[in-house]
Request: fold
Amino acid sequence: MKDKNAKNLRKSMNRGSIEHETRAAEKEGEIMTLAKKDVISIPQTKTIKEAAEMMIENEFRRLPVTDPGSNKLLGIVTAMDILDFLGGGSKFDIIEKKHNDNFLAAINEPVKEIMTKGVISITPKYSIGESVDLMTEKGIGSLPVLDADGKLVGIVTERDFALALAGVLMDETVEDVMIKDVITTTPGTPIESCSKIMVRNNLRRIPVVEEGKLIGIVTSTDILRFFGDKKMFASMTSTSGLDVLKQKISEIMQPNISVIEPNIRLGDLCGLLAEKNIGGAPVVEDDKLVGIITERDILNTVLAKKE
Reply:
């Protein structure tokens, strides 16, 4: 399937004009060769806590929110939405103001209170090239696929494209496209502050450094996992959200992380991301952090090549 997807992607990227590409997409519907068709979705009445638990259980970064009767898309809840709720942005008002800092009450609010509405979507007739264009133009990590009635029939993500790209990018190396100005944090940073950094900078992962040395990484999934940990709730000594979120990221970060060298080919990196089931990695040279690279950086490279 990977070889077939890579051929489709290469064909789509070299197809030429958008008009020609659109006509071909109407005939081929090739995006469905990448899209996941058995999509797990949730109703908008599910609680925020339940949504986080489902994300962790299924290793998802996002969950479409649908109407149970019609299966029409109502919104999407992402890891970033939950980080926003956990002190990262304006959705923290649900804890701080609406529930007067009562964390246990706030996490039982329905997911519709934090979900993203007006979701950008595509139809099954889209080509892979069109989908990459739209995803990179809008700076989003997924595209729900809706049929003519607005019903959810699939979803395609940055990771799906990255997996298909192994073998397509032959010449570029990690050093060519990595982000060199890396935002980092320290092990003593509170979870609330880390959430703020992620939300404000639209980051899913932040390297953790101490005395100039890379000692781990904290991801949006790590924070979700903490949020969904039953042991954490059992050990709470108060209902205060601020008390919960002041815990240090040293308690949740990953100390044993996958790092890559700057001279690795992007095609080989795509294979590594698939093998490790990760969306990005710090770039290290001579034991020094020199950059970070993610699925989105790979997609931006593909778009630049097409143009």
Notes: The CA atoms of residues 189 and 248 lie 5 Å apart.
